[in-house]
Amino acid sequence: MIEVVVLNKVQEASAVVRLVLGKANDTPLPSFEAGAHIDIKLPSGLLRQYSLCRLQSDPRYYEIAVLKDPQSRGGSEEVHGLSIGDVVHVSEPKNHFPLRSKEAKSLLLAGGIGITPLLPMAQTLQCAGTPFEFHYCGRSPSTAAFSDVLKQASFADKMHFHFDSGAQNPGRIDLHKVMSEHVADADLYVCGPAGFIESVLEHAAALGWPEDRVHREFFAAPAMDVNVEDNHAFQVKIAGTGQVLDVAPNQSISDALEENAIFVPVSCEEGVCGTCLTNVISGEIEHRDVFLSKKEREEGKQILTCCSRAKNAGGLIELDL
């Protein structure tokens, strides 16, 4: 982890703050590309992931924008409580949501705070001279972070705003109309609330959008049709040692590993962030995450240990640990 200082704190919208982070000695931070995020270890010890919301104009700084979530489990509330001068620790940038190609025509769909990973994508595509269209959906202009900045950006002519209220750009987005115009020739990138992403993915499937051109990043897990009372016990095998561990019905694989002093990093505990992604050697998996694609789930080569389980009672999953 890299020790950084909060160098600036800006209120970007009614419940969104932007933090500028940098080293105390003013030296460069590791570089990144659009779509990347950093893990942040907050003073309380909480570990959270936040998208880097702007490309680096200066290699000494990272910028994140964080929505204060009413259902916060503590992370966003603590971020909003940080002050200039406070110290936090961050990982090197990770990217599970990259641009497939800087030269491929793209459709960017942002819902609320989902603007954060898509804004650097727009910057990248604009610099490359690549055609793209950018739609930003929100409740109102006052809650939409960066809306004023985006109206003045070099790619302002590619921006489309959709607000539920307010005199300017009122009305919800017509996803069918917007998406149907780009099925044949564009990559789709979507980020925002779970319900918004699910709606976009449903429209993409109905329109016949090829799965390898649909890219999404969830910030929180959508409601899933899973009854935890139906959870069954199973086992995991550690390939490197041959050790077999029991996983109780009320346990996750991550919990069982931790009980046995086997370290796999965990953060969201909802199958969203990919922190606990672990390779699988064998075993049938009941995937309960939103991180892996449909193809990746069918391949059965990886598992999110915080939420996914063996498909059958008494089953065995061998982990590449």
From TrEMBL:
Domain (FAD-binding FR-type) spans 1-100
* Coiled-coil zones: none
Q: Iron among the record's keywords?
A: yes
In terms of Pfam families, this protein maps to:
Fer2, NAD_binding_1
2Fe-2S ferredoxin-type domain span? 234-321
Q: Return the InterPro entries for the record.
A: 2Fe-2S_ferredoxin-like_sf, 2Fe-2S_ferredoxin-type, 2Fe2S_fd_BS, Beta-grasp_dom_sf, FAD-bd_FR_type, FNR_nucleotide-bd, MRET, OxRdtase_FAD/NAD-bd
Keywords in alphabetical order: 2Fe-2S, Flavoprotein, Iron, Iron-sulfur, Metal-binding, Oxidoreductase
Any one GO MF term held by the record is: metal ion binding
PANTHER family in UniProt? CARNITINE MONOOXYGENASE REDUCTASE SUBUNIT (PTHR47354:SF1), NADH OXIDOREDUCTASE HCR (PTHR47354)
Q: What is this protein called?
A: Oxidoreductase
Question: To which species is this protein native?
Answer: Marinomonas piezotolerans
Q: Which lineage?
A: Bacteria, Pseudomonadati, Pseudomonadota, Gammaproteobacteria, Oceanospirillales
